[in-house]
# Entry
Amino acid sequence: MTLHSSEQRIVGVSSKLSNILRNVLKRDAVASTARAYEHVYGRDEAGSFEQRKTEYKRLTNQYYDLATDLYEYGWGRSFHFAPRAPNESFPASLARHEQYLADRLGLRPGMRVADLGCGVAGPLCEIARFSGATIVGVNNNAYQLERARKLSEEAGLDHLAEFLKCDFMHMDAPDDSFDAAYAIEATVHAPTKVGCYAEVFRVLKPGGCFAAYEYSLTSRFDPNNPRHRQIKSDVESGGALPDIPFANQIDDALRQVGFELLETRDLAENPGPGIPWYHPLVGSRFSFAGFRSSQVGRMATRGALRLLEALCVVPRGTVRVTGILDLCASGMVASGRLGIFTPMYFLYARKPR
Ligand SMILES: C[S@@+](CC[C@H](N)C(=O)[O-])C[C@H]1O[C@@H](n2cnc3c(N)ncnc32)[C@H](O)[C@@H]1O
# Structure
């Protein structure tokens, strides 16, 4: 897999379907990258957990090389879910979910804060703007970082945004160097929770806090239920996730590395009146706003890409990539309806002084 040089790439917003996957990988590398990814994350690879963990860096990078344009096209610049109130717009709900972390961490001007797995900096921009803190986006994916730099510049936030290209399991940062840290639906890619949290603990200043939205299985998940297991596997295969843990495993890992737990809870449990987190992936016949992410919208996108692939406008293999993402989307919807999984297990922990 070889990346184009940055000069060769067109760093424009991936809002045009004809631009999907045209700027990240060499044209003939899309199909082979998707095949290599699927080789490990195939639907029936029951024995591949160890391989997912040992090769997490390559697999996650391959996944985000393939998925980033489609995420931006279908979802926006914040690659996460959010609780949503009855009359709240989807973008407003995403921003509120991001601001909640900033608020809980007490972020303010002068603080230096790590955003682990920053994506293309949608949340980073919102949180920097909201809090005035300097946010350091940590990400291991070169294409996403290029988008992140471009988008934070366009937002006029380059004075509050820094970026660090590294693996969050081994951060290129000194001990005790951040005032706070947060992660939004990113540390689920870590091969071990203990390894990941130990690294966050290392880079935080004593007294510094870590807040995150983690993926977790809920108490309704039954490991002996084949349907539950299949849904878990679909979400993992379609999302480059090594092994989604139960909530208590997350709490245990935080304690094990020395964090003091201030709060952990599933924000999707007993949410009150509102729109379920997985709703954008289902869609409504009456809403055009979220059409692209809805089931019908995704089918329409796939049909259009099939045509564009046949006409050689987008690279060969593009439709195959939509199949990977669709597996994740349908697994997410099924898991949300059954209440066996949450993408918003909120954790708030402190490194003791
Ligand atoms: C689902 S995306 C979430 C992105 C961002 N937090 C957001 O909400 O928009 C997961 C992110 O984690 C990053 N990531 C995954 N594993 C990583 C690792 N080992 N080191 C650094 N970044 C990683 C991916 O590149 C991607 O940007």
